[in-house]
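Today's session is about reading a structure prediction critically. Students often jump straight to the picture, but the first step is always the sequence itself: look for stretches that repeat, for charged clusters, for runs of hydrophobic residues. Only then move on to the predicted structure, which in these notes is written as discrete structure tokens rather than atom positions. Here is the chain we will use throughout the hour.
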Amino acid sequence: MKKIFYSISLILIAGWINFVFAAVKTGGMIRGSIWVANEGGNSITVISAGTNKVTATLSGIGGPHNLQVSPDGKSVWVVSGHGSKAIMIDGTTYKVHGAVPTGNHPAHIIVTPDGKRVYVTNGEDNTVSVIDVDRMSPLRTIPVGQYPHGLRPSPDGKRVFVANVKSDSLSVIDTASDTKITDISVGKNPVQVAFSPDGRFVYASLNGENALVKVDVEKLAVIDKVKVGIGPVQVAVTPDNTRVVVANQGTEQQPSTTVSVVDVQTFSVTDTVETGKGAHGVVIDPSGAYAFITNIYGNDVSVVDLSIRKTIAKIPTGEKPNGISFSTMESPTPSKPVINFSIEGHETKH
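Below is the predicted structure for this chain, in token form.
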């Protein structure tokens, strides 16, 4: 009897291990949601990270270029390129909390690690807008380089690095005083930046050089550069600080279809992964298991298994998916799959 019980136990354990392995490989063990800004479709796609299925579509934001989930996951900030506004959405109800004016042609938006401030790049004005989250009001405007695009905060929240596409530089903002403290020449047409988890280095995509550059944060100087795919745009560093994932967009006429995986130690490309048409945005889940890539000319998101460096799924989105962000909170399922809302009545005046 003991032998039979032992055999059954082994079978059950083996079955459980196979189930867990299968769930991990399909993203089934990840909790949270992926938020995607569909700039061409004037909408936001919300995806369940556990199932890789679309949970909701939020319609009514004009030209959303980029978005960012707050550190606590309770809210999502998105820019409206058509309305020159930063809009705060409740991540649990999908309701608009408020809208704050920005400069002209807002591109990227970030929330500081403490969740108290929001920074927005204004491409047409060569400035960065600073927004007070509690008051839902603009605080000040910081002059930076020409055509600021991507930006990210340091892990400790003390600095914000801004990629200036037409100045070939990164502007460094001190968040205590909200002033630009310096510009760093990095190479041709930097588009977006990403910090290492320890805050020692920042990486920037050089769209005009088909390269990734590495900057020492303490020295404020370039220390390395590596060639990647054609037309790199967004970048992200894995949580274990071993790899940098670079999305290669190419052009609309000749789209790239890959992401480059760069080893941090050797600073060399170790893998080139086929993703989709015009790979643009990158976000990596907190476990470091998967990278999610927006394909701006394919109207979908690729799910890349970073353990095997392969695309394992594609998820349809709206037209021209651009910015992408990960929330550790699971997305609620609304009664209707498409939610239409207006920001009128939620706007903060100057």
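Discussion point for the tutorial: The helical segments are 2-25.
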